[in-house]
Amino acid sequence: MTTVPDWLEVVLRAVAVLAAFLVLPLLVGQAEHKVMAHMQGRMGPMYAGGFHGWAQLVADGVKFAQKEDVAPRAADRAVFRLAPAVALVPYLVALTAIPLAPGVVGADMDAGLLFVLAASAVGVLGTLMAGWASGNKYSLLGGLRTAAQLLSYELPLVLAATSVAMAAGTLNLTGIADAWGPWWLAWQLPAAAVFLVAGVAELQRPPFDMPIADAELVMGPYTEYGGLRFALFLLAEYAGIVVLAGLFTVLFLGGWAGPFAHVVGWLWTLVKVFVVSVVVIWIRVAWPRLREDQLQALAWKVLVPVALGQLVLTGVVVVAS
Amino acid sequence: MTALDALFIALAVLAAGSGLLAVTSRQVVHAALWLVVTLGTLAGCYLVLGAEVVALVQLLVYVGAIVVLVLFALMLTRAPIGTGDRSDHPISHGLPQRIGAAVVGLGITGLLAAVLLRALSGPGFSTTIDVQRERGGSGRVGEVLFAWWVLPFELLSVLLLAALVGALAVSRGGDDR
Q1: CATH 1.10.10.10: does it fit domain B1-82?
Q2: How near does any CA of chain B get to the CA of A87, in Å?
Q3: d(CA A155, nearest CA chain B) in Å
Q4: What is the pLDDT of residues B145-163, one digit of tens each?
Q5: Any CB–CB contact under 8 A between A218 and chain B?
Q6: Is the Cβ of A129 closer than 8 Å to some Cβ of chain B?
Q7: Domain boundaries of chain A, sorted by first residue
Q8: Which residues of B touch A139 (CB under 8 A)?
Q9: Is ipTM > 0.90 here?
Q10: What pTM, to 2 d.p., does this model score?
Q11: Is the peptide bond preceding residue A72 cis, with omega within 30 degrees of 0?
Q12: Residues A73-90 pLDDT 10s
């Protein structure tokens, strides 16, 4: 294998991550439309482009791009305009640290797990900025609920990820996936369940969509948004699903583990990411929205104790073995 | 001057500038958002100095949790939303507040200066920091934190626990238990 200069490698890796960031969320978005349609026993748009209406996504994109860029008079313009970018970009940054296979990663860093968690925690600010800057009481209430929800669910999310890091003895995502074994599926099951639930709640997707509850708050923090800026928020949600599914795959499903892993490991990772994404979509279709007090009770009375119990279990096993 | 030096200076200027904007902004939510920029660029400074874990924890805890908490608390107050009506609820900035803030700021500056000057002028230290030396990795930080500094670490945990119990006691009130 010929060596490439450092700068070229950096550029190539950055371009690859950007390409993944532009393609994967759209695939997940399209999958959501189709999976939801079939689960709810309806067709959805079927004509654009021929096969199952695949070009509807392109048409939607063109429609979003054509719309007028409106900021309400009461809004704080600068913050209002910046919010979608603040919501979206952290997921791009987080994606750089998620490995597809050993070496196939944007940047392989010592504390990769910490990096992904820290980067995706910043994305929350976009929603809060939108909620506050819109100058709309529904947006403000949505922002309030967002903040309360994210503060509660950040804790079980980090605790569940900590359990895996303890079991693997490293914060490096490649190292964690390499240390993974099939028996982790049973041993780390509580952590996996907590991580998935808390992750979906962090994304504010149904059944955890109290902040954007459309029957009560119109659209929560996104009420005043339209056109391309609204599309960016949607894209941030799908990018969030990709990052969550990627992290879940690497932490709990062994990443590239599978038959012929040294040849098609990256394919296994992608397949697992897609399966986890479909599960996230399935959760949305299967459960009704939680009430605000149920939402908080689930985080503090169920997820945090389970995650702490898992930490104790992991600690005992690691010390004993 | 190396590229790292230039990067550090740029980040430091950004951090100081946004910090200044955070304390002078008349709109309290803008102040909180400028604080995000300050904390983020400070994390960048740590990263340039080779303290990777400290930088990431700074992002995760301060930007991801503390500022969200600040914004949450602000939403519960009557801080104006959107452009709002600024004359109605201005940030309190009377003379006593200014004097208090100045005293606290000067005190912390003095404390930091004293600690830093002593640390950097002591034996084995110099005013230049070798950023290439492996010192900020998660393994190294973990060893130092849980072997050498474990007692202060546990004391901090007890302090936080006490604050938690205290908050519960205050919110439950005195009589209606």
Answers
A1: no
A2: 13
A3: 10
A4: 888 888 998 999 999 999 9
A5: no
A6: yes
A7: 25-38+54-320
A8: 81
A9: no
A10: 0.83
A11: no
A12: 777 778 888 888 888 888
